[in-house]
Design goal:
By secondary structure, the chain is an all-alpha fold. It is 86% helix and 0% strand. It has a domain of 59 residues: Up-down Bundle (F1FO ATP Synthase), CATH 1.20.20.10. It is built from four helices and no strands.
């Protein structure tokens, strides 16, 4: 059930981000359309992966804080640092997708 939700979310994000591609002229842009759709699909996978990773970090951190309230400060600091690292990797991946797409 969880996998079905993730796949449905990936499909929705891909269809939303691919909208401008379909608005282009179709003269000699057959190959360009494939590249742009590939970029839209790749960027949607990057965003979904980052969201999933940060969600897992938040879930584990809240569970850890509930089990050991005295360690909440250090857990929160580690969570924020790890989430920042994931966001940095996501930004780099999106830049690579944009550079390959362009």
């Amino acid at each position: 059930m969880k996998l079905a939700k993730v796949l449905m979310l990936a499909l929705v994000v891909m269809l939303i981000s691919g909208g401008p591609v379909f608005a282009q002229d179709t003269g000699a842009a057959g190959q360009v359309t494939k590249v742009l759709l590939g970029g839209a699909f790749a960027s949607s996978l990057v965003i979904i992966g980052a969201g999933y990773g940060i969600g897992r970090i938040g879930s584990a951190a809240v569970e850890s804080m509930a089990r050991q309230p005295e360690a909440a400060g250090s857990i929160q600091t580690a969570m924020i640092i790890t989430a920042a690292m994931i966001e940095g990797a996501t930004l780099v991946a999106l830049l690579i997708v944009c550079l390959v797409k362009g």
